[in-house]
Each structure stands twice: as C-alpha cells, then as structure tokens.
Amino acid sequence: MSVRSAIATWLTRLYFSRLRKKGGSLDLSVLSKLPDGALLPLRREGVDPVPEIGALRDSEPVSRLPIPGMTVWLVSGYDQAKDVLGNAKAFSNDFRHLVGVGGAGADQNPGGLGFCDPPDHTRLRRLLTPEFTMRRLSRLTPRIHAIVEEQLAHLEKAAHESPDGTADFVEHFAMPVPALVICELLGVPYEERDAFQRFSVARFDVLGGAGASFGAVSQSLDYLRGVVAEQRRNPGEGLLGMLVREHGDNITDEELTGLADGVLTGGLETTASMIALGTLIMLKDREHFEALRDAEDPATVAAPFVDELLRHLTVVQTAFPRFAREDIEIGGVPIAAGDIVIVSLSAADRDPRLGPDMDAFDPSRPPAASHLAFGYGIHRCIGAELGKMELRAAFPQLVGRFPELSLAVEPAELEFRKLSIVYGVERLPVRVG
Questions:
Q1: How far is CA 96 from the centre of its chain?
Q2: pLDDT in tens, 400-416
Q3: What domain of life does the UniProt record list for this protein's source (predicted)?
Q4: Helix ranges restricted to H, 162-297
Q5: CA-to-CA distance for 108 and 87, rounded, in angstroms?
C-alpha cells in the first residue's frame, strides 16, 4: 500500500461519512491522489519536523489541509494552537463524531478522557485527578527507580549475550520501563506487557489504515474489560482497585475500561518514544550525555534536560482531532461549524515566537511559555507528572550505569516510524560499554 493510500485514518474519516450521506461509493483510489501537504503534520526528518511545516507555520499558522471533499484546518502556530486546545466550548472531542466513519463502530469508542466532552469529561477527570497529584504519585518513586535498574540489567545482559555485543535499546529498556510502571499503576499483571505494547503501538500507526487502528482499539478494550471484571471481583491496590473501592457505584465498567485504556495509550508508547529518542539525542551529541553523567547532582540537571526534551521532541505530533461546534475565528481565519481542526503540537512547540533558535535542543534555555507536549486545556495529559518522573529517573540512571554507552549503528541507518501520530524509532542498537 502506498503512503498516500495509507492515510485512510483520522484525516479521511469524515470524508467517508460524507460520501455515504451523499449516496456516493467509497472510492479508496481518491486517497492515492492526496497531495503531500495532506501528510505534512506527520512527516519528520530524523527527530525534527520537516522544514516545510515550519515554513507554513511562520507564514500561515492556520491553513487549509488539501483533503478532497471536506474542510480540515491545520493549526501550527503556538498561540493559535492554545486558542483551539483551550476552547472546549467551541471545539468537541466526542468520539461519536467518528462512529460510522472510516470503519469505526460505537463499540470501538476507547472512552476515557481524550474522546469525551464535559460534563462526562469533568466527572471522570475529577475521579482520576487525586491519583495523579505529585503527593499520590510519590508512592511510585521507589518502584520506578527499581524498574529502571532492573531493565538496565536486562539491557546489559542482552548486550553481553549478543554475538556482536549490541542490544536493542527500545526492546530491552525504552519500552519495558513504562510498561512496567503502567502495570504497577493500574494494578494488572506484568505478564500482560506484550499485549500492552502491541495494542499501544498499532493504534497510532497511520500506515496500518483506519481498520487496523480501530481493530487494535477493539482488542485493547476487550482485554481491559477482563481486567476490569477481575478488579470488580477483587479490587487491588492499583488505580483500578482504588476506583472500584471508592467510586464503584458511580462509575460503569465501560468507563473504567476507557480510563484504563487512556492510561495505557497515553503513557506507554509516548514515554517509550521519549526515552528512546532522548537517548538518541544524547548519543549523537556527547556534550549532553556528559553533562548529565558528570553532574554533581544529576537530579538537578535532569529536570530542565527532560523539559527541553519534551518540547524539542513533542513525540505526540498532533492533538486528537477537534470538531468545531460553532462558527469561530482562529488567528484571523474563519472556521465553520462542522469543520475539523488538527493541531500540530510539534510545529507549535518550535514556534520562533517562543524564543530564539527553537529548532535547537538547548537544556540551558530559559523557561519560556509552557510547551504543548502534553497538550493544553482540559484535555492536557493527566499523567504528565508521572511521565516526567519516569524520564527523570531513566536518563540519570542510564548514564550512571553505562558511562560509555554508544550507538552501534550510524544515525542514518536508523528506521523511524513513518506517519505515526506518536513518533518514534523502531530500533536503537547500542553498545553498553
């Protein structure tokens, strides 16, 4: 399947719906005619967004994406992105906009916080918020550090047992760390890690097409329904058990499943990509690696290092699609009710209006406006602090354990994920010493 044909996901769902409403046939060949501009929000060169989206942001921060038969706006400027993400009154996230479109059924609604609007969103977020405060998350700190150490040992063992002395950093460290942390948080068996990883990666891969993405959602939800049923019978000490014990009569099994799915997909692939790509940046520029390795107080250095990594990489390339509820103007551009708005988080986080040389990675950069790596407004990632905790543990422990860590291949040989909403590298071969 060509790249253009594979774009049949979130950019074309409404197009399919409108064809049906007009009585037209579902001609997938139209997708092969999509211009390159339609794919722009998901394109990168290495870890960087392609220059074209930066140029578009600077000249036209609210622009029309060339999608036949539908009106889709790309918002790439920082201020304009905040205007959209912060306005839940004018823009909807409700999954029901997608039911019957591009193969999505009502039973494939992932639920959770990302695909619902107030008042449901307000009620569910209120239930979760206490568990994601720094005070409550601090109970996980010792376990997070232990998980990192355990996986560093696995990474070292894999490298020593390999014929060429290399190991895949993604397989043996970047992915298992957040998978274990999520299992710990939710209170589900770690033995299910492989399923967690498979579901999380597949749903964000645009190359698989809409059917594959929605299929991964369905499988994930089926698995998590079983987890929720077990937690109903025997509430554990994790997040799901807490919700059952404290709010069992006020939350349905489907809502619990959706919340668990949101934690899974919001905290696994994203954190794994950040760990892998952040390590790649350090190994390509040893100055950053050595600054963290040689610091007297690594924790002090890690905090700004992680925050700048989040901004610079912005691995979640676009926010969930927004559907305009009303006619509104963003950045001087009129948007009509019913239009789709796609916010390019990666382009917005490099907006030159935020400071000088925003395309560069600079941990010494003075704090400026808040980055959008976790989104903004009522849909800002509720697990943002947990993600930061994992990153602040992973990088200092990594460089401390392996002070001579190095890439085992040339950077040009690395294979990055193509057209995926959550950007990442497929493999990262390393030598640990």
A1: 21
A2: 999 999 999 999 999 99
A3: Bacteria
A4: 169, 176-186, 193-203, 209-233, 239-247, 253-267, 269-284, 286-293
A5: 26
Question: In which band, very low, low, confident or very high, does the pLDDT at 223 lie, cut at 50, 70 and 90?
Answer: confident
CA trace torsion 35, 40, 44, 45 (10° rounding): 50
Burial of 61 (0-12, 13-18, 19+ CB in 10 A): buried
Task: Identify the residue whose tokens are 């640990």.
Answer: 432
Distance (Å, rounded) from C-alpha 238 to C-alpha 380? 22
> Tokens 């307000």 — which residue?
122
Contact call for residues 336 and 324 (beta carbons, < 8 A): yes
Give 134-167 as a DSSP string: HHHHGGGHHHHHHHHHHHHHHHHHHHHHSTTS-E
288 — phi, psi (to 5°)?
-70, -40
DSSP letter string over 213-231? HHHHHHHHHHHHHHHHHHH
The secondary element (H helix, E strand) that includes residue 386 is: helix 384-401
- Cα(391)–Cα(368) distance, integer angstroms: 21
Closest CA to 398 of 187, 156, 101: 156
β-pairing, 91-92 with 322-324? antiparallel
0.70 exceeded by pTM: yes
Residue-wise pLDDT for 352-364, tens only, equals 999 999 999 999 9
In whole numbers, what is the pLDDT of the chain averaged over residues? 82
Cβ neighbours for 286, distance < 8 A, ≥ 6 positions apart: none
